[in-house]
Amino acid sequence: MSVAGPRFWLIKSEPDAFSWAEQTAHGVEPWTGVRNYAARNNLRAMRRGDRAFFYHSNVGREIVGVVEVVREAYPDPTADSGDWSCVDVRALGPMPHPVSLAEMKADPALTGLALVRLSRLSVGPVSAEHWRHICRLGGWPEEALSAL
Question: Does residue 62 contact residue 19 with C-beta atoms inside 8 Å?
Fold first, then answer.
């Protein structure tokens, strides 16, 4: 991934704990509660302007929206102890056609996707090629892709 332009990520949430509907209702929301070191390090690597797929895990197992990082990593206020971080994200819009985990696993173009390889990681990187491919699968507007 290039550090010159926006980088791409996938963030997971169980919809019964925090859903896409709640994200859109809140507008900007801190992405808190991550308690995995690899995922925490990914949060710390995020920069303002980076984009992330919002993925419903457990129930649904699909990408349902796109968010943008609006505040870089800072101490997670929900952590009772330990060195944990969070970022603030803003909803950009829903994925017109949610892209399911089954669809991504079946697509040869997405073989190296972190979601497929590291299924338990709650915050993971997405390559620019995978980002564009998934956006097209989900019907994300082509003009939004060309701006990246």
Answer: no
pLDDT at residue 31 is higher than 70: yes
CA distances from 56 to 17, 65, 131 (A): 10, 9, 17
Distance CA 146, CA 44 (A): 27
pLDDT band at 1 (very low <50, low <70, confident <90, very high): very low
Residue 126 has pLDDT above 50, yes or no: yes
DSSP H/E element including 115: helix 114-117
Helix (H, G, I), strand (E, B) or coil at 130: helix
The domain 8-146 having CATH identifier 3.10.590.10: the answer here is: yes
pLDDT digit string (tens) for 60-113?
Answer: 999 999 999 999 999 999 999 999 999 999 999 999 999 999 999 999 999 899
E-assigned strands of 81-134? 85-100, 123-126
Residue 107 exposure: Cα atoms within 13 Å on the Cβ side: 17
pTM greater than 0.90: yes
Q: Where are the domains of the chain?
A: 8-146
The tokens for 140 are: 């994300």
